[in-house]
Structure formats: C-alpha cells, structure tokens
Amino acid sequence: MAEDGLITLKSAFGPAETMGRLEAEVKTRGMTVFAHVDHAAGAAAAGLPLRPTDLLIFGAAKGGTPLMQSAQTAGIDLPLKALVWQDEAGATFLSYNDPAYIARRHGLGASADAAVGAMSGLLREIARTATTSP
Prior knowledge:
Elements: E1 2-3, E2 6-10, H1 15-28, E3 32-38, H2 39-45, E4 53-59, H3 61-70, E5 80-86, E6 92-97, H4 99-105, H5 113-131
Antiparallel strand pairs: 1-2, 2-6, 3-4, 4-5, 5-6
Helix pairs in contact: 1-5, 3-5
C-alpha cells in the first residue's frame, strides 16, 4: 500500500527477522547503515508501552548526492529510512518513503529522474527481499 509518499509492505516474518533481513540486504547492496533506532526500547526505558517499532537509516552517497545537488533540502529526507513495525493484530510491516515523493517534495527537476528511478527500484527490491520468502 502507498499513501502520501509512504510505501508499506506486509512482511511474512516477525519484526526482528524482518529487520535482520532488511539490514543484511542493505549491506549486501553495498550501502552504509548509519543508525538503527529501536523506538520500542526507548519507550520501554521511559516506562511506556510500544509495539515493535524499529527504524533503519541507510544510504549511499552515489544515490543520494544527485538529489541533494538538485535541491539541498532533500538532505532532510536523506539518508533513506525504513521502519519495521508491528500492528495491534501482530502483523509486521515495512514502510519507507517513496523516492518519487521525496523528489516532488523538494521540487527536483528532470535532472534527478535517473537517480530517483534507480533509488526507487533498489528500495523496492530491498523491501521485497526483507519481507517475502524466497
């Protein structure tokens, strides 16, 4: 499903396995993992309940730099992020921002089309690998 630039896929795996598969695939593709934010652990440390909600921040300069060369404000949406989360019924999902949405948001011109297309395809492949059985 896609809504307001957010692409969400249901995972065939639980939250921990989905995140593990996501991180492994990102690294396999030669991308850098910049940070891993476990929102549920942060909530627990504050004495608050939160279902599994785990954010991975990752990217590659070759992919993101062309977008920032067109509009430096794109840096607010880069590096890329993917959120693995579990709903109230126990289903696991992976959500990420659609690169085409990022391009529209920052008014990127046609010069960024190739980079946006490549980024979109790569994210789609990474997300599918992280959420589906072979």
